[in-house]
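Appendix B, record 7
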Amino acid sequence: MAEVLSQQEIDQLLNNMKTGSEESSPSHQDKEAIPFDFRLPNRISKNQLRTIRNIHENFAEIFSSFLMSKLQSIININVISVDQIYYSEYVLSVSNPACLFTLDIRDTDIKGILEFSPELALTLVDRLLGGYGNGTKQSKLITPIEQKVLVVVVDKIMKDLRKAWQIIGDYEFGIDRFEPDIDFAQITSQSESVLLITFEIFIGEQSYLMNLCFATYAFDSILSKLSTQNFSTIRPLKYTGTTARKILLHHLHDTELPVSVEFGKAVVKFSQIMELSKGDIILLDTKIGDEAKVKIDSKEMFYGSIGTVNNHKAIKIMRRADTKEN
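Structure tokens (predicted):
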């Protein structure tokens, strides 16, 4: 059966015949339509996300220096991801009970959430109170006393965020309250987008997660300052904080080691030892004037001459022992 043309197609053919041209068949079928979600517009461009990532890499370096000095351990903090997601998606990812601190940026409408994983929160509390972070707790609910301990860390995070954000402007971060339930830490509507920054914190060989979540509906004032001029100038700061070497040297300086002096040696028979009594003299293999061996933690380190100082026996270090002999 022959195909029936519509009136629109007939008019188009007649117009082509009058102009003497023939349009080729439309090629728009080769193009695929890209779906656009009007509920979640990309408020933050990829370049701006890269800049925000660099800013928080600066923060990670500063904060790791603080944790290293407080916990007396090797600390490494990495920025895992910087994403825009639905707030409802973030809510579903939060554990219950949780360790959440709601925050805001002073003199702006920007609100956010600082989230510690329960394991990280309990480890920080244990280590800050003098433990080794190996304690176990049946309930992961953060008690009021533990909240007070964590406030020390949270206040430092707010100061370090302000320092890292100086490249954009002088923004003051402040904590609002603690929340164990994400349902009561509402910072925006479920259908709105949020900026989620995820950190991985290594304390020794153990790794933990920490999240920063910002509502993006009031981010316009900040995004306007993330111009292309700043993209090339924002780089992770060179680490200038306390290093593991400095911490170890600090502890070594205060470490006490046993020091012993060996006057000489002698070889005696067991029968002679059994016959020893008060007043007996044992002949050593050294002579008067020979240097005595100075041992530190049972290792021969120096040679010295024996004498007295203020009615106390003493030894003057004369030279370092040859390590090859040991």
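Remarks on this record: The chain is about 30% helix and 25% strand. The mean pLDDT is 82.
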